[in-house]
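Quick review question:
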C-alpha cells in the first residue's frame, strides 16, 4: 500500500467529540487489520489538514475492549498523519486532581488483557521502547494551550489503562492510588503506543470526570451517567484546546514525531533503524 498525503494531523475522539469538525469529507479506509471504528472524517483547521476518527464509532457503539486500535492507527498513518492528538475522558486517582482538570499524561501503565497491541507480529521482529511514548514536544504545546485558556492543568501524570467496560473495584482503585498514579482510563493503551510504533507523535489530554471508585476522595463511586454529564459540561473546553493546539503545531511536524532510531531485525537477521524502511516492509 503506497502512503497517501491526505492529512498531516490526526485526532482520536470519544464521546462528545463528534461536533468537533465542520465541513468534513467522509472517507472509508481499509486496513490489513480490518475496519477502523468508523469512517475517517477529513477537514481543514487553520490551514492544516486534519483526520478525525471517533474511537468508539460515531454513535458510541464500540466498547473500549472491542476497539480495533491497530486499524484506527494504521488508517491515520496510511493517510500521511504525523502527529496525533488523543483526548479522552478519565477518572482521577488522587484527591488533588479534581474533576474538570485536564491532565497531559507523560506515562502509562497497562492493565488491559488480550488486546492486539503491536504491528510487529513477524517476520519483522522489533522491540520499540515505551519509555517516552508521548511526544515531549506535543505535550509542551498542549500544556501551553490549556494554561492560556485558563483551564486547570496538570502538566504530568500517569494513566492506568484498564480493560473495561467495567469500572474498577474499590480494592483496585486503592491499589492504583497507593502506587501514586493520577489518571485511570480504558483506551490509551494500546492506542498511544501503536502511534509510536508507526512513527507518529502522540499527545494525550485526559479530561478528569470523576474520582474513580471514590475510595480516596470520600465520594460516590463512578458511573457512566456521571462521567458523560461532566464530559458534556467541559466539551467546549476540549474543543477549544484541540483547535488551538492544531493552530500552534509547527509547520514541520517531524520534530514532534516518534522518528527515533528504533532498532529492529528482519527475518534474515539484518538490522535497520530507518523508519521509512520499516514502513516500506510493513505497509507495502
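Suggested answer, residue by residue:
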Amino acid at each position: 500500500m503506497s502512503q497517501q498525503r491526505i492529512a498531516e494531523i490526526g485526532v482520536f475522539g470519544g464521546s462528545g467529540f463528534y461536533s468537533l469538525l465542520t465541513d468534513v469529507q467522509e472517507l472509508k479506509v481499509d486496513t490489513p487489520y480490518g475496519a477502523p471504528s468508523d469512517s475517517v472524517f477529513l477537514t481543514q483547521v487553520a490551514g492544516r489538514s486534519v483526520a478525525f476518527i471517533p474511537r468508539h464509532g460515531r454513535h458510541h457503539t464500540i466498547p473500549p475492549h472491542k476497539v480495533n486500535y491497530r486499524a484506527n492507527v494504521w488508517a491515520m498513518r496510511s493517510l500521511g498523519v504525523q502527529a496525533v492528538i488523543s483526548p479522552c475522558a478519565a477518572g482521577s486517582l488522587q484527591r488533588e486532581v479534581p474533576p474538570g482538570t485536564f491532565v497531559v499524561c507523560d506515562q502509562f501503565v497497562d492493565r488491559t488483557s488480550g488486546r492486539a497491541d503491536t504491528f510487529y507480529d513477524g517476520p519483522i521482529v522489533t522491540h520499540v521502547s515505551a519509555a517516552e511514548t508521548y511526544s515531549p514536544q506535543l505535550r509542551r504545546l498542549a500544556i501551553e494551550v490549556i494554561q492560556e485558556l485558563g483551564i486547570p492543568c496538570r502538566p504530568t501524570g500517569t494513566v492506568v489503562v484498564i480493560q473495561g467496560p467495567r469500572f474498577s473495584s474499590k480494592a483496585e482503585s486503592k491499589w492504583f492510588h497507593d502506587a501514586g498514579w493520577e489518571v485511570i482510563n480504558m483506551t490509551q493503551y494500546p492506542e498511544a503506543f501503536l502511534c509510536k510504533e508507526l512513527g507518529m507523535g502522540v499527545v494525550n489530554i485526559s479530561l478528569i470526570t470523576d474520582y474513580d471508585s471514590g475510595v480516596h476522595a470520600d465520594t460516590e463511586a463512578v458511573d457512566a451517567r456521571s462521567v458523560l454529564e461532566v464530559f458534556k459540561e467541559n466539551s467546549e473546553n476540549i474543543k477549544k484546546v484541540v483547535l488551538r493546539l492544531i493552530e500552534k503545531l509547527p509547520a514541520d511536524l517531524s520534530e514532534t514525531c516518534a522518528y527515533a532510531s528504533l532498532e529492529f531485525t528482519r527475518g534474515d537477521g539484518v538490522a535497520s533503524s530507518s523508519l521509512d524502511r520499516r514502513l516500506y516492509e510493513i505497509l507495502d
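Why it works: The helical segments are 69-78, 136-148, 170-178, 188-197, 224-233, 235-248, 275-283. The CA atoms of residues 76 and 241 lie 21 Å apart.
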